[in-house]
Design brief:
about 375 residues, alpha/beta, TIM Barrel, eight-stranded parallel beta barrel, disordered N terminus, polysaccharide degradation, cellulose degradation, Glycosyl_hydrolase_5
Length: about 375
Amino acid sequence: MNMLSNKWLAALVSVVLCAALPLAAETNKKDKEREPGDHAHSVEGSGWWNIPYPESFDVKLLPKPQDHIRIDGNQFVDQQGQPFFFRGLNIADPDKLVRDGQWSQALFKEIADWGANTIRIPVHPIAWRQKGKQWYFDRLDEAVIWANSYDIYLILDWHSIGNVEDGFFQHPMYQTSLVETRNFWADMALRYRDVPTMAVYELFNEPTVNYMGVANGLGDIEWDDWLAFLESNIDLIRAYDDKVIPLVAGFNWAYDLRPFAKAPVRRPNVAYAAHPYPMKAQPKQRTKANMFKAWEQVWGFMADDYPIIATEIGWVQADGYGAHVPVIDDGSYGPMFTEYANNKGLSWCVWVFDPDWGPTMIHDWQFTPTEQGAFFKQVMQQQ
């Protein structure tokens, strides 16, 4: 392990030690007798010493019983051992939805009516800092209860795009740090430990670095260091919750999983993420066979040994709202991708159930489907 990996290991130890304090304190606070020096409990007032310890979500608040989804070989299974496929969609960041007046149980009911069994919730670092931990806990508590009432599972996504080691990011909204990322997952793992609805943690949305000879101005990460980053966060999460499923991505905006073939994550029961938008594959002739071959070579091959969730898929016509590289397509992508996913046993989530972010699934807040929205709605309702 090189010096960078050691740096991450040292940081992990520090975070785990600090994060472990709430666990010990949560147990100790139940004691009736306190030590004389326990000022956090013996002194009244509004000082920093009276900030309450973090608390876990009360599973008794869930409206319905729900299976813990787990990994068995290269597939997800329910508690009866039957195969389970995450098939759903992304929503916008809760902060945006609150600002739009759309954060409500009615939104979750609409998604359930579309046939989704999964909602991916992106949390942007800039919003996390602006709104604060407790605000997001309150919103995610609501999301857990609403999703559970419709037997929907949640994928929680730390929605950063860039190079977390060197501190280069695609946009200010994605800026974060190693420490902030670890603290975020420590907070989430403690808050939602043993909550079956909060099924998957996507550790870092889209790692974007100079890779395979392509320079994009976001610096480099050695593969061993990226593995160390992923593994340290997995270890931290599992210090609190050994049931939630960690989901990890490769470089090239979470598209390329080939390095994992030689050096996979050295932890059991981990799933892999892919964002195979239509323009990421570039065969000379865009036939179904060639697209299948391109996907298989770059990321789909991993499904032979590990479970995969394509947590961002979708398309828009070249003249459509929000058209940009790499999401432009003539509409053939949807049928091709879902056929490939069915053949490989893949899970997936469409981007995005919001009229402002593209490629969008809805034209408006009356939930009028776009072209891709209508297609995936029909697919989800038939599954």
